[in-house]
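hey so i finally got around to running both of the ones u sent me last week. sorry it took forever, my laptop kept dying halfway thru and i had to restart like 3 times lol. anyway pasting them below in the order u listed, first the sequence line then the structure token line for each. didnt double check formatting much so if smth looks off just lmk and ill redo it

first one:
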Amino acid sequence: MQRINNVLRVHFADRKGTFLAPVIVVGIAMVVIALVGIIATIVGAERDALWEGMQYNGAVWTLLGIGIGIGFATMGQHLSFALGMGITRREWAIGSGLMFVIMAASISTIVVIGKVIEIATGGWGMGVRMFDTVHTSTGPWWQTAAQTFLIALAGMCFCAMIGAVWNRWGKTGLSWLGGVMLILLVLAFGIGLITPWEQVLRMLEALVSFGWGGWMSVLAGITVVSAIVWAILTRRAEVR
């Protein structure tokens, strides 16, 4: 357990970058949202219409995006330092996975608290939203907690996997990965072109009606697959 604690210490060594930076980023985003509310009030916009329209506001990604940076850093600047301290690759994978869960839970908690306050104050008194959006679920608080947690965790695991591909095969690996993703997109687009329009509409309707639980299952699947690939590649990670 002490060895895993050492991994967490490596990740949380830069306390300003880990804890202070997110607070500053969220603060700036909230100031921008507040300015939108002030300007909307001055020009006479209806508060109900503003509240409804801002459910698609993506400002919360300033917080969720932090998880993406954490995922990349796991296989970048931190790995070499950890291996130099005698931490094994297996310990690094376990400790980093635990750190992902801690950070995803922290981000989820911040969003849920922000959402509760946002709703209670009628959109910070101006009908604006930052936390109660479609990106983090406009349903009950527990849905927001689960959705935000899965988005953050999936983002960190996926980006850690990308970082592991880069660590293992460098630019060549990223090129192959990008090529495979491009081929899949082209195939999907091609299938869409040759498929009758009525069937395309039915497929789109099926995606729309997939439901909250279905999309959460997709996020969970992305998380599991990314985590497994990342853990496997981490066992062969090189010091760079």
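and the second one:
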Amino acid sequence: MINNMKRYVIILMALLCIESQAQNVAYVDLNNPYFRENPAPITTPKRDFFSNLAASVRENTIEHWFESEEFWSMSRKMVVTNPYSLWANAENNTTHKTLKMLTSSIVEEVPVIYTSVTPLGEEVNVSGKIFLPKHKSIKGIIIASHYTIGGNSEAPSETFSFEGIFATKGYVVLMADYLGYGISAQYPHPYLNANNTAQVSVDLLEAALPYLQHRGFYSSTSNLILLGYSQGGAATIAIEQLIEKSYPQYRVQQVFAGAGPYNPAATYDYSIKKNTTQIPCAVPMLILGMSYSEQLNLPLENYFLEPLYGNYQGWILSKNYSLLQINQYMANSDISDLLTPLALDKTASPTNLFYEALSHNDLTSFEPKVEVYFFHSKEDNMVPFINSQLMCDSLTMKNIPAKYIFGSFGGHMNAAIDFFKQIYSCYL
């Protein structure tokens, strides 16, 4: 008889061999007033009956598997295969297909459309996804923020994001695509723009609540959980900042921020000084994002060297390629092979304006009212540890309590497994 571990290995290998198929995403429009006007009854005996029946029939194999060492060990192997995206089939770009297949019986995915704003204040329809537990009572709502992606195929609305596994613990998980992905792909992504990234995520919460009530998911908004890794770590802090400033009706109970670029200027400087980065496409993404969101109109012909200048629209702005593919196209990770001397000179105009824009999005001066769990590997080869060190120094100087898990957890994506594992196993 094949033991459980071998069975799961066989399942995983079989699923990863399935050829990718184009997805036709059917979005739920959260702008529909029907959800607000037609909430479900508070008590639904039929729902409780079938939930109890399902719980008694199922053996909870999948839920227990997510808590097993086999799952996290296999996750690490996936990261070794593709260091830019968790649980990804790099060859076919079928991101997170395995997780989607394994969780289909216990997690419902709802791609959604809702209204938000651009950094310029224009109203715009954006997209995201709601992950719903099928057979559990709702413990609370998690706003999860995804890490850096390259194409729409990696956006939450188009795939099963790794963060969706938290729905198996009984949480509603909300994930915005961020402006510039999903149905708003025609816009440049305002990469590391703290305010807009946070606003798009909070707008998803606001839009989702009537829909959740309509579906009969009654959950208090006084115990929100925020979590995110990498770009999602910075977005998580930005969301907490926005909620404390402008949304007093919501109270955040827990915040988990992993390896975030909290200080974009320090991150950019660090890469410039080292003249290398493990994620070269983040450099032009940052310049493009700040130029758009801060209305800098940077002269890209004077900033990007070939072949980047001749291809950045196809590689990056088209949203047709995964992060792994973009980095492969760029080939060389030396910054001096990507950018002109003008882009490297922070005192020259208009590069000085670019640095000012980066400083506008510095999160290290924020003083959170809730204790934040910070996680970062000192060996991080993508988001330099200086980010978390600066955050720690700032909060410590102001006597603001926080939890810091800093140590040797390997590279950036390998450490992501430790981050998600600790949250899943120890805190939820």
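quick thing i noticed on the 2nd:
The chain has a mean pLDDT of 87.
anyway thats it, ttyl
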